[in-house]
User: Fold this.
Amino acid sequence: MARLADYFVVVGYDLDKRGSSEGQGRILQRFPEKDWEDNPFPQGIELFCQPSGWQLTPIKLPASFFVAVLTDINSERHYCACFTFWERVQTPQVQKEPSEADEDETPEIPQPPVQLYAPKSLVLVSRLDHTEVFRNCLGLIYNVHVDSLNVPLETVIGNLLTCVIPIAGGSQINDPPVCSLSDWLLGCFQPDHEDGEKSLRTITLGAGDRQVIQTPINDSLPVSGCSVAQLFRQLGIVNVLCLFCAALTEHKILFLSRSYQRLSDACRALLAIMFPLKYSFTYVPILPGKLLEVLSTPTPFIIGVNSFFRSETQELLDVIIADLDGGTVTIPECVHISLLPEPLLQHTQTALSMVLDPELEVADQAFPPATQASALKIQDKEIRAVFLWLFTQLFQGYRWCLHIIRIHPEPVIRFHKAAFLGQRILHEDDFLMKVLDGMAFAGFVSERGPPYRTTDLFDDLIANQAERIRNERDDPRKTMNHIKELAEHLFKNENPYPTVTMHKLQRPAESPRTPPGLGPFPLLDDVAVQLFVDHAAAKLRTAPPVVKAELKEMVPSGRPLADIVEKNGSVLANSARRLEVVRNCINYIFDNKMLESKKLMPAVLRALKGRAARVCLTQELNQHVLQNRAVLDDQQFDYIVRMMNCTLQDCSHMDEHGIAAALLPLVTAFCRKLGGGITQFAYSCVQEHMVWTNMQFWEAMFYSDVQSHIRALYLETEDGGTSSPQGALELASEQTRRWPTLTKETQQELVQKEESTVFSQAIHYANRMSYLLLPLDTSKNRLLRSTGLAEVESVSNSYVTNSIAGSMAESYDTESGFEDAESSDVANSVVRFINRFVDKVCNESGVTNEHLKALHTMIPDIVQMHIETLEAVHRESKRLPPIQKPKLLRPMLLPGEELVMDGMRVHLMSDGREEAAGVTGGPPLLPAEGAVFLTTYRIIFKGTPNDPLVGEQVVTRSFPIASLTKEKKISVSLPMDQFIQEGLQLRSCTFQLMKIGYDEEVASEMAEVFRKNVHKLRYPQHVQGTFAFTVGQSAKLVEHKTKDKNQSLRTLSKNLVKSAKRTIGRQYVTRKKYSPPTWENRSSLQSEMDEDEISVSEEVEQSTHTLSSTIRSSDRQTMSNVVERACCRDYQRMGLGTLSNSLTRSKNEPFRISTVNRMYTVCRSYPGLLIVPQSIPDGTIQRISRCYRQSRFPVICWRNSRTKAVLLRSAGLHAKGVVGFFRSPNAPSAGTSQADSTSLEQEKYLQAIISSMPSYSEVNGRSTLSSFTSSHMSTSESSDKLRQPRIGALMKQVMGTKEDVPGTISRGAMGQRARVISLSQPRVSVKARGSPRGKWGSIRGSGRLSAYNPDVGNRLAGKESPQANGSPSDPLFLRQQHAYLYIIGDKSQIKGGKQDPLQQWEVVPIEVCDVRQVKNSFKKLMKACVPSSPSTDPNMSFHRCLEDSEWMNLLHRVLQVSVLVVELLATGSSVMVSLEDGWDVTTQVVSLVQLLSDPYYRTFDGFRLLVEKEWLSFGHRFSHRGAQTLAGQGSGITPVFLQFLDCVHQIHLQFPMEFEFSQYYLKFLAYHYVSNRFRTFLLDSDYERIELGVLYEEKGERRNPQVCKSVWDYIDRLHKKTPIFYNYMYSPEEEEVLKPYTFISNLKVWDFYTEEVLSEGPSYDWELVRGRPEGSAEEVTPAPAAERPETAAPKSQRRVVWPCYDSLSKVLPDAITKLLQDVQTLETELGQISEKWKDTWDKIKTTQRTETKLESRPSFSSSLLMSSNLVHQRRSQGVYLQESGVGSSINLGLDCEASATSTPAAGRPSTSTLYSQFQSTESENRSFEGILYKKGALLKPWKPRWFVLDKTKHQLRYYETRQDKEFKGVIELAEVESVSPGTPTMGAPKTIEEKAFFDLKTTKRVYNFCATDSQNAQLWMDSIQSCLSDA
Assistant:
């Protein structure tokens, strides 16, 4: 029984505190005034009565009612029903009102004498939740007051406070009625005598009222009314499910609504659907505004707040806000709600929609049945039934995972979470994991765990209905029926007598008769009320006690989990065959058949990945344990341990499948005998698994064991009569039932027995834990360090910094170097871990304090004893003969390369590349076992695969140490012999990755030393510490310090000698003009002094840059050194100015070679000699250079030999330069006159360049191009009319609009916005021109522009304004169409300014990629090409990662700009590339432009010269971009040069016959520009190279012929020996300008990024590859016959080629290489002097040419070339603009050949020019040939011609006669549209039949042919048709 109301409170407005800013309420009266003993009065009720604050209002508001919930300190909920009405404020106080009115929250209160109303609340405080009863009771009291009924209020309130009702219905069947006072006085509640049950109560408060209270039958089921249905109506299914999951996973939930009652209902509804879980966090359905800071609490909550305070909830970042009025749920970004697991979520949503919207199912039916949603009350229960149904499925089988660890005196139950999740196969489900870890579930277990208690609906569902639910869940109809049954049950529980209705209370009579002066609510007589209360209390005391008869029973468990989990769910992924393999292997081991078991071992280890095989293993091993012991010999022990490790390795730390639990008794059973009578158990070898450090695992194991012991304890005490296999819970239930019947002594005895059972298990587990936590070698504390068992371990996880080698000893102490202290440290952490465990389990299972103390004293002794045992075991186990490990293979080293660290035994793990791991087929080469070596040049791994089937192969992986980009510690695990934890991942920018795991024999100190050495070698202090400089010197790193000193002394002495020489005026020794010496005579040694003599040209003192007077006289000799540099040789080749001996200038040249920078004073990063306009004096140059970044002013680097247009390069302008240079002259100048003069000088400089162009001096502008020879016209397509539109289109692509997103490139097509302005208007308004949208308008701000040319946009788009009729007038294209000079500038630099008034130069703003973009893109590219681990995520596939890297976008951008520049130069305009600092993108663009425009640069010499000139001399910052020294460590690698090489590779792919060098040559450079093997790519400029004395030392003889300092010399040397760098398809066309496709779809991923050769490592260090002993079949240059291994037995020529292992170019060389090899081999065998391959090749080519003239058969070389079947034919840029009536039609050719041939633009060379080098007819591929008559042009006769149909070239050629060498004409088959039978026309041969005629229709004309006869004609037609269809 319980009181209906505990307290009645009257709360009113506090008129005394009206002066304060906010009104307040105060308690006017409360009854009873004394607190109840069992229920103290809750504080703060006045806040909850008016949650939005106490305020006076000018109007009388209607009475309101809501129920707030307060929670006390004991988590008891108090329901406060608040009934609020409004009373007139008494007039005397109103006089003070105006002063407060301003401060009050209702400022619109008018001035007095207006009447104000104050709120007053009547509050009922109760522990029962009967909202409607409270509403009626309080309403009754208010009615008595308002209607002035003649019933004393004290009586009504007294009756209310003394009302006692049952909590639940079935509890008081035979209770005598208890009356609080005599019936005549009170008329108190009378039990309805008609009803036997008391779930229906009628009460009266003595005011003529009669109220019915229905209490629920079972109070464990929540009462919800209609609140759940209401909540779903307000928020919808998905939102409520979201809130439901959020509440269960402990998120913060906030409800907003304008209605307080709705807030209460929503909160109540959310709790109702959570049943059977109970919410145990903060629960405040109505939160007063004054307490809003509660919302920032860190704990979860469910709170309701009035929408009035919405703004204050906006900044809550982790709170889910549900707006009941708006129907929305807002989830913050940082909150992730785990949803129900599928398919449960889907099932639940379906069921809910069937309840809420039954029409949905039949909405599509033609004759829908009449369906109707249930009434709200019923619907509410149906929704709750769905959630009950859901929880039954979630928790089914939970009782089988309960561990009962104590039965007496109180049952103690624990839940085995891991087992539950494992058996349900939900261990990866986020939602269930969180729910099981939550507080609500802990309460669920403690409440529902006990096996003997009263049961309810949920217990019945779990036990009996789970099976039904599972069977029916796919049938919605059956599911619905079940839900309806459950709903009925719930409804009946809540409404036992649905026919009895609540007595509705009348509204108070608001009649006009109500006196206006109705007084305020009266003060009540507390004595009278207290009298009622006391009287009732006395009566209750004398009444007999109420005995609550509870029906307790054993809680049924339902079916075991194993049966519940669906068959397909746990179908073990292993077939029976795999389990058979595991069983056989174990049997072989115990039968000592070691050879058999060794064979099966790899298969077993693979099988153990599956759960069934792991379970099978534990079962099989169990059978071989006798009396807890199984002694094995060494090899058996080793195999068993290996299998155990493999089994444990795939177990998660939770051990959800119980594998570790099953192995725990086994690891203490299997052992082997060591010497000296010592036994080693298996546990000492399986410790390195996370599961052993997981406290939850030990607890679950402990509880499981305790349960089985306690069960055994009771089964023993039972008489032998009942020997049924009772479960622990059933047994506990039986014992609990019998407990009250036992005597005190028996009870005491049972409690003691149980307690000592738990205690003995705790001791046992302390031992077990020490076994698995103490490492065998306590000095190697690996386990603790990796998992941080205790606080101390954080120290041992410390990162050893790169301190000097001397301090290593100290720093390693923190790792594991302690001698004595370390073991005790390990001991301490293990003791702490075990103590924590013991404290937890003993407190939970009720072990006495004495026992607990005893345990705490025992544990350190147990640990210490075990450590002593382990020391002996460790000592003896070391004496065992070690397991045979593979011999370490030593790598070959380069001459001068030395080992820094000898081989360290490691395992090379597989990474994300799948080929080597055997995933994609092929053998699993990785993981491999071997050693890692560190040399002065490389990091090398060499070893053999772990897989015994591939064991005889050698795996090599290496990369130059200078290319290392990232190194990080990792943890790796091996499935084989041992479990390796520490490892290292090394990533290199040569696209290599090494994941190594240290072998157990490698001490952690060694690993750390290795890392430090790697770091030292990777980042030397100075560039002189790199391998290219130190090669051949001692590699002892510890001596680095002294070595550095010596180096600096040497440099110092050099400098001293130099300055001395300078002062004396003596000149340096200079060399004669450099010609590369032959290889043979380079071996002569050179003296030390010699090296010093060659070293430098004039060097400036460090301190000052002024020129010393003594240097003046030396100019000539200094210059002769400089003249030998690449730049000068190239300038002379192009005729770009001369430098005669007397340094005089040839005046008639437009350019001169200036020596202004010879001392590197003008610009540090430029070469000493520069090409400048003849007319510009050196002084001007010095001034101009200041305007440019890094002083890199514009200089000429190339001149087009045909158009004489020049290419210039410079850096971008400084900000002031931009203003000075581009600002319009009439703008007020901010700078001084000096700035203006500089600007003028700049203009003069540009004018001088323009003046140098021959076209400038001609009167009619561009049309001077016609003066060039017609042959040039045809080859270079320079007819302007055809050219212009092309450039306009290119320009459009290259320049991004302002709206373009930087970094995105429209593939192939130009973006829609990227249009040139004013293509259609005849004029451009000034406004439009200045606007940023127009591509070309954006750079001209000046309005004066229109005076010079109204058609700016059109001019650059390459077309004139259309005429009135829309067709362009013909002669217009002869007018000036292009500027003389285009400046390619950075968009971000050129913000707007003036245009040169005469339009002689034009600025093209483009967006360039800055180095940061390149760096980030490169990082992503490396991760895409060489991922560190395999990814299953489809978003992480290779192509997706490649796209994300944007590397192809960057290539596209650079190529696009380059092609634009090439086009502009070809049309005769000069171009100045002026981007960023002038040393990254600028260098890329100018190099590519020269490569595309000038065939010379596509030869060996030319490419070398190009790189030396543009990259080395012009100061690309190789050291800085490659982070080659310690200073650059933070900046990372930015591979600008690699990007350039990739662009060259792309061009090479598209034009394979234009390059003398092969793709391998580019890869070779790409590898060695970062390898630091050569000095070529070190340092940032010529100045730095001169300073270090390395610029000129590369010339002349060397001390050590083995060590090449220049990559070019090395390539030359190698090129003489082997054709590896040569491109056999090289057959260039004269003056061919290449225009590659640049769209991303045309670019290919360079195989340099993805290829790998594991057999020998990278092939770019030729000595290493050549020196491999694999026999001549693999050599490109074969070894002499004597060296080759003898092949006595006949050997098959067939061999398997493995991708990623073999070098394909060696194993499968191309035909020419193979033939050249064979020739050399034969020459060697015949004892002849082997001829150089190049001579052989040249000889063959020459003889073939002569032979072809003599013989009439296809020659060797050309047919070979023809059959090579070029996939990529030469193509020009894929954009053609064909003139049409209006504007330009754009055809984008993206596909390789198809569009290139099908849409030929006029003026484009036909495909035949590809093959123009074949002059002879015989060498051609003739598919079909013969004589045909061809009709000539109009009025011309039919003539017989010899026709040749060529499939390869896709042509039909015709000759005068069969013998002719030159063809008369050619029909491109690409242009042929159809071939059809024809009719004879005039002049046709007479004798021939009609069917012999046929027509060939092309895009241009129709050809008429006639064959000798109809059969022949048919043959011709068929052949041509087949050619067409093949294409």
